[in-house]
Amino acid sequence: MLRKVSIFALAAAALALTMAVPANANDAAQVVVTRGEPVQIAFAADLSGSTSSFATSLGNAVQMAVEAHPSIRGFPIQVNVVDAPCGNAAADAAAATSIVSNVQNVAVLGHFCSTGDTAALPIYQAAGVVTISGSTTDPSLPLLGPTVFNSVAVPDGCCPLVDRFSPWYALVQGLPSDLAWRDAYTQRFGSTPTDFADLYYDATSLLVKDLQKTSTLAWGGTLVVDRAALAAAVRGTTKYQGVTCTVALDPATGYRVNDPAALSSCPPAWSLG
User: Fold this and answer.
1) What does the pLDDT read at residue 273?
2) 191 CB contacts (<8 Å, ≥6 apart)?
3) In this predicted structure, what is the pLDDT of residue 272?
4) Could you tell me where the beta strands, DSSP code E, fall in the chain?
5) Radius of gyration (Cα) for the chain, nearest Å?
6) What residues are paired with 226 via a beta bridge?
7) What total of structural domains would you count in the chain?
8) Complete DSSP assignment for 44-113
9) Taking CA atoms, which of 16, 41, 104, 268 is between 20 and 30 Å from 125?
10) Tell me, what CATH number does 75's domain have?
11) Is residue 273, in this structure, part of any structural domain at all?
């Protein structure tokens, strides 16, 4: 039975792991996980910045998704939490550098703010580390991470800047599947989720699905994750059924496709697992 511990309790251990990895570790095109070790996913959360009030709820959503699918081909999943405060470009770049320096991080959930991704994406792109956000909406971000950037939120319009996310998200939050997930979250954690938690649940679940699909078992029982294959699988998402309805990512940008027809035909319910 999975021990239910907040993923934020892993933050100190994740930092220690990061500091122990050689500086050139981010050159690896494949991540090799030995038998008995976990598959590591980084979560770039704003723990100390202007949007830190969202961090606990988003972390709970990530944890909830991992609890629903806790392993990749028999290997447990570990979430490494890294502070990536909104509004601090230097700290966001430092967070990204620490994440890619740990060669065992197969992917990144986040960053929460578009400004954070602006600083971090060139670092992830250079390392070939795929990212999935549940909150960034800046239409210029794909230029900074042409093969690794993805978001399960729809982008705003440009130019001039037009808020296309808010009206879309209002519809999502009224879907029966989303309401059912929010009820399950409330029962699990004893409080209602904040905005974006549902999207981070879907981002995590989508990533786990693609890790399961693209990873392979090698001689000796090791698990091999090819970074390019994982990035291609995430970017190629077309009909992933999440709590926020059907997710399709634009293959040119990595942003979620704004599809009113899909929203109008969502399944009426959602159940854990």
Assistant:
1) 54
2) 57
3) 57
4) 30-33, 39-45, 71-72, 75-83, 105-109, 130-132, 216-217, 223-226, 240-242, 245-247
5) 17
6) 30
7) 1
8) EE-SSSTTGGGHHHHHHHHHHHHHHS-EETTEEEEEEEEE--TT-HHHHHHHHHHHHHSTTEEEEE--SS
9) 16
10) 3.40.50.2300
11) no
Residue 8's identity, in one-letter code, is F
Res 262: pLDDT = 84
Sole residue written with tokens 């690794």: 148
Q: Is the pTM of this model over 0.85?
A: yes
Between CA 234 and CA 205 the distance in angstroms is 11
Q: How far apart, in whole angstroms, are the C-alpha atoms of residue 241 and residue 159?
A: 31
Residue 35 lies in a domain: yes
Q: Sort strands 105-109 and 39-45 into parallel, antiparallel or unpaired.
A: parallel
Residue 240 has phi, psi (to 5 degrees) of: -80, 125
Overall size of the chain counted in residues: 273
Domain membership of residue 184 as a residue range: 7-264
Specify the 3-state DSSP secondary structure of 242. strand
- At 128 the three-state DSSP class reads coil
Q: Give the separation between CA 201 and CA 66, rounded to whole angstroms.
A: 9
Both tokens of 125, joined, read 């792109």
Alpha-carbon torsion (7, 96, 205, 57), positive or negative: positive
**Structure tokens, 145:** 């991470």
Question: Which positions of the chain have pLDDT values less than 70?
Answer: 1-27, 269-273
pLDDT of residue 7: 47
Q: Residue 61 to residues 110, 123, 156, 184, 223: CA-CA distances in angstroms? A: 13, 26, 24, 11, 26
Tokens of 83: 């502070």
In a domain, 270, yes or no: no
